[in-house]
Amino acid sequence: MKRRSSLTLWTGAVFAGLVVLLALVSLFWLPYDSDDTSGGRLTGPGGGHLLGTDKLGRDLFTQLMTGSRIALQAGLGSVAVAALLGVTLGLLAAFAQGWFDDTLSALLDILIAFPTLLLAMLIVAARSATLGSAILAIGLAQSAVVARLTRILVKRVLAQDYITASRTSGTTWPRIVAGHVLPNMWPTLAVNLALQFGLAVLAEAGLSYLGLGAPPPNASWGRMLQEAQATFTTAPAGALAPGVLLVLLVIGVNLVADGLRDVLDPTARKDRAAA
Fold it and tell me: Sign of dihedral through CA atoms 208, 114, 16, 131?
């Protein structure tokens, strides 16, 4: 069990790490400028272009490197927004009583039932098609899932006997939340946030594919897929390269989340110890 979880975790870390490495390198070096169209239209690999060029003459490898940075920004930014709003709302809902608790729970259920991509499209359309708008929209859509999970986890912790003992001894609620609630809910919440990261990357790619993500000359993987679909038969690298990296990043993050679940889950630790 321990070997399997370690293999899963390390495999996911390698997959996601390749994309992270591309993004980090792109901060300091790019083969060409993002808007350099001097490479010729739809040229194949070679001649100074590792993967060839797109229909505008831009270097595909440069576009991929820039897109990796945008994908990570979208994933991390969306998860940060979702965690901030979701944990706050979840704590409020867990401590709420009566009609307030019922109202918050109903609102969260409605938001969860609403498709994330559609909600993000509505928010982006109401603002403007920028990366910041996409991050905000995806984060708001995902915050309902985080809030509901936080509410469940907090209520589970609050039902424990040691919480009653802490209250009896005079410990204040803020200290109980900081000392008992957050540390006990963090392992499960961390795994969920890792999964939300992968979903956020996919959502940003979907928005960019529809023209609602980062505007040109930003090379989002979703925009690259949209631009390359008409020339797939003559220049397949334009669609295959961003698609492979997108799948690689999402699978890698999901494998990391699966590995973290085995490592951080107290029940899993007890099972491994018993074995």
Answer: positive
List CB contacts of 255: < 8 A, sequence separation 6 or more. Answer: 8, 9, 11, 12, 15
Q: Write out pLDDT tens, residues 102-145.
A: 788 788 888 777 777 777 778 777 777 788 888 988 998 899 89
Structure tokens at 104: 């918050």
- Distances in Å between the Cα of 232 and the Cα atoms of 65, 107, 118, 222, 228 are 20, 43, 27, 15, 6
Superfamily per CATH, domain 68-268: MetI-like (1.10.3720.10)
Tell me the domain boundaries of the chain: 68-268
Question: The tokens of 236 are what?
Answer: 């397949």
DSSP-assigned states of every residue in 37-50: -TT-TT--SBTTBS
Q: What is the pTM of this model?
A: 0.86
Name the 3-class secondary structure at 53: strand
List pLDDT tens digits, range 223-234: 889 888 888 888
Classify 168 in phi/psi space as left (phi over 0), alpha (psi -120 to 50) or beta: alpha
Compute the C-alpha angle 119/218/12, nearest 5°. 70
